[in-house]
Design goal:
Layout: H1 6-9, H2 16-38, H3 46-66, H4 71-114, H5 130-140, E1 142-144, E2 148-150, H6 153-179
Antiparallel strand pairs: 1-2
Length: 192
């Protein structure tokens, strides 16, 4: 069977950008949800993989809805969404920590007015920037399996592993969805 001419195979250009924007919005929503859930429980290795799978479901669903069918485009979109999700998780954690510390500082000012003796107690300061927050979190450490605590570079490496697992989960789901479809997603659709 011969392949249809390129002009007949061309995708409608208006559907790519809504799909990409939808993937970005879905990634932000997944990041917010993951940040909210990880305060309660976040099993090492399992949680980032689950986040990646949730991300992949949205990428594939949006691709089906927008009729984006090229596997390489879907994988690129999944990796973009994974990057947004990973950075977003950390940014939402920064935002939450900053709000919590600012509220504590306000309560401290009120308490100092009533109890001046509290002035000698040291309190944590709110991080001044997102990068400052990441650096302070790395210095503070991260609990790892086996009752160990990663500090400094170890925390950055654990975050890298998390990011790779999120990206792998999303890419795996995109790959599975593309190979289980009636026709591969990188194969052009037939004329109707």
């Amino acid at each position: 069977m011969t392949e249809p001419p390129a002009e007949k195979r061309a995708r409608q250009p208006g559907k790519f950008w809504p799909w990409l924007a939808g993937c970005a919005l879905h990634a932000v929503a997944v990041a917010w949800l993951a940040c909210s859930l990880e305060r309660h429980t976040a099993p090492f290795l399992v949680f980032p993989l689950a986040v990646g799978l949730a991300l992949g479901v949205g990428v594939v669903a949006l691709a089906k809805w927008c009729q984006i069918e090229r596997r390489n485009v879907l994988l690129t979109g999944a990796l973009m969404a994974a990057t947004i999700t990973v950075v977003g998780q950390h940014y939402f954690a920064y935002w939450h920590a900053r709000e919590t510390l600012q509220q504590a500082a306000e309560r401290r000012v009120e308490a100092l007015a009533k109890f001046p003796g509290l002035a000698t107690q040291v309190t944590s300061r709110a991080p001044e920037s997102f990068v400052d927050f990441l650096a302070s979190e790395a210095r503070r450490g991260r609990e790892m399996p086996g009752s160990t605590v990663a500090i400094g570079v170890g925390v950055w490496l654990s975050w890298l592993v998390d990011a790779l697992l999120v990206a792998s989960g999303a890419a795996l789901l995109v790959w599975i969805a593309s190979t289980n479809s009636p026709r591969p997603l990188d194969e052009p659709p037939r004329e109707r």
